[in-house]
Amino acid sequence: MACTRKHLLITGTSSGIGKATMEAALEAGYHVFAGDRSVEANEQPNDQDALTRLHLDITNDDDIAAAVEVITNHVGDAGLDGLANIAGVGIPGPLETLPIDSLRASFAVDVFGQIALTQPLLPLIRKAKGRIIFIGSIGDRVTIPFMGALTAAKSAIASLNDTLRQELAPWGIEVILVEPGFIKTGANKTSKAMIDKVAEDFTPDQAALYGETFNDFTAAGYKTQEAGSPPEGVAEVILEALTTKHPKAHYLTGSKAHLMGVVGKLPAKVQDAGKRKMFDLPGKGDKEE
Description:
The chain is built from nine helices and seven strands. The protein has 289 residues and is of the alpha/beta class.
């Protein structure tokens, strides 16, 4: 007997928002294809199982091709009902000192990998008149100092989301952007270790320019993140976007998301002053020699 469940691919399911969305989707009755680059090999789904784990690094073309093959063989003519592009990376650092390879890595995951996975799945999504979710960030509306790699990549995926939404509308395919605010994902300690490594790698000249300011910013940012909303709240919004009859184009969710959305509408100089205060940064001209 063929699987009669609706089918959903979720990336980044090892932790945080991806894991919470996987659990919520299983509870809602989906057959979930759970993409996780730490999984050693792809499972071959059968009609009785509701969870198929896939080894999936979205920056690896071979991983994408293998995952698409597993999904295609299982869903057949029914197609794929949903794709939740959740896998992501946040690379911190001042743009003056950020290695270009780090900027490339940010775009490789948060932009190119998202589209590289979405493209070959579109024929299956079209069959089911399915839905596509991209995870943006409040950072696609409000840029944040020292997080330029992340906010630039999220701004790019927000633009690509809106492009796809318009291009796929003739087939009734909804393309939806979910924009979380501050979320306590469980990966905050990993993020803190990444931040500490950036500071450790500063040259003496770079440390003189940015060391104290970067440390103050990241301390304030880490405290805000630790007080953030749980990932289950974002998962709930993603499931709503996948199932409601008339989904919104964009969903703001999580701690300070709506507040920061309002901030993003203010004049740039007003925003800059507010962010300097929020993140305990030096005032304009304070470091002039």
